[in-house]
Amino acid sequence: MDIKAQVKAFKQELIIKKAGELFAKEGFSAVKMADIAKACKVAVGTIYKLFASKEDLFFAYVQYEIDRFYNQLLQDYTTCSDPKKRLAIFVDRMIEAFLDKKKVLTDTIAGDPLFFAKLNLTHQNPAQKIYNLLEKEFAKLPLKIDNPQKAAILFKSFVYGYIEYWLLFNEDIQHTSHEALNIFFCGIIKDKTC
């Protein structure tokens, strides 16, 4: 990568981080590109040179957060090799990741699944590598279904269900990760104890 490309990537990352702070504090809908430019101490045009729209900037922010989550998960996975324990780590890390993003999640636009569906039509699915990682763990387990990829997607959606419940009813989500894991395992894994 040449110096010009490195400078551009560095600028993008700085803007993504600052925009992410604003999205987390105010919500996607409330933040304007002018607010982001002011927080970054750059002209609005500078941001538009790097991101075609606020939606593209938000998608880059989501990708950035997913990359951070994925790298942390890989680091955590070095501490154990048991697939069930690794899936428990995933649930704990996912809940932690969402705890400080409540404002973004409850935003009427950014919290809408169709918003991401539309973004995914023009971009690669940013969560695909997480699905792939989960799929590898499920491939190591005796499943009632013979498709680890399907198990990975169902599992991630199941955990999202707990997060949605937390958003709606403000329950203490930090203490529900093991409950979620046990319920899911009893439903999908061949185990006589369930």
Question: What do these coordinates show?
Answer:
The protein has 194 residues and is mostly helical. The chain is 72% helix and 0% strand. Helix 1 packs across helix 2 (33-40) and helix 1 packs across helix 4 (54-77). It is elongated and about 60 Å long.
How are the elements arranged and paired?
Blueprint (H helix, E strand, L loop, with lengths): L2 H24 L6 H8 L3 H7 L3 H24 L5 H17 L2 H4 L7 H10 L5 H11 L9 H22 L7 H12 L6
The tally of beta strands, per DSSP, is: 0
| Overall average pLDDT | 84
- Rounded to the nearest angstrom, the distance between the terminal CA atoms is 53 Å
- Please identify the top-level CATH class of the domain at 54-188: Mainly Alpha
Order of helical and strand elements: HHHHHHHHHH
Query: CATH homologous superfamily name of the domain at 54-188?
Result: Tetracycline Repressor, domain 2
Q: Main sheet, how many strands, which sense, barrel?
A: none
